[in-house]
Design a protein that fits this description.
Elements: H1 14-17, H2 21-33, H3 38-51, H4 55-60, H5 63-82, H6 86-105, H7 110-122, H8 131-137
Helix pairs in contact: 3-7, 5-6
């Protein structure tokens, strides 16, 4: 069995560190009562950290995609001005389509990729209520 990284301790997440001591004790009781292991707890708290990331930081992850779309549009407009080169026009239109798909899908955004990875890993564990639901029920 593969040894897990020591950095993936749920106690190191911002959601856990920002919780007060009574909430931390309640979380440990919740972990034991619902039979949640440390890895699943880390993923739940890490997902919470990702969701509370500042909007500016999330938008900065889209900068490369935005620049690709702008570059593809410039290439397409240049191909339109040449007007005779159909190969360049076809390539430009395909570039605009592909880069737009990359931009709107969030495939190049590290925030989107990290959130999808965490959600994919959480699917391998038994379903539990989310941290928000749990906090509402145990507040």
């Amino acid at each position: 069995m593969e040894k897990q990284k020591s950095t993936e301790d749920y106690r190191q997440t911002e959601a856990y560190q920002s919780a007060d001591p009574s909430t931390r004790k309640a979380m440990s009781r919740w972990m034991s009562s619902c039979q949640i292991d440390a890895r699943q707890m880390y993923l739940l708290l890490h997902r919470e950290d990702l969701r509370k990331m500042p909007k500016e930081e999330i938008q900065n992850g889209n900068r490369p995609s935005e620049m690709m779309v702008i570059g593809a549009i410039i290439y397409f407009l240049y191909a339109v001005t040449l007007n005779r080169n159909t190969g360049m026009l076809l390539t430009g239109s395909l570039l605009v389509i592909v880069t737009s798909i990359l931009y709107f899908s969030g495939a190049l955004n590290p925030y989107s990729r990290a959130l999808k990875k965490v959600n994919r890993e959480l699917k391998s564990f038994p379903k539990t209520e989310s941290l928000e639901e749990w906090q509402k029920n145990h507040a």
